[in-house]
Amino acid sequence: MATKELMLQLADEQGVAASLEDGIQRAKVLRKTLQTQPQQVQEQHLRILDTMGISEDQYWEGN
Length: 63
Known about the structure:
Elements: H1 2-14, H2 20-35, H3 39-52, H4 56-61
């Protein structure tokens, strides 16, 4: 939660804005891109998520 708040604050300070729908669409594109990557890349991504202590859905959906 703190990370999200800091990101929003930085975006506000930089005058950058995007709608929630923009973010959702971008996440969908990036998720599909990851699915086309070699298995080794996908496994590394899952290891990173495991280290972060979050599920793949949490990562992509921001929950």
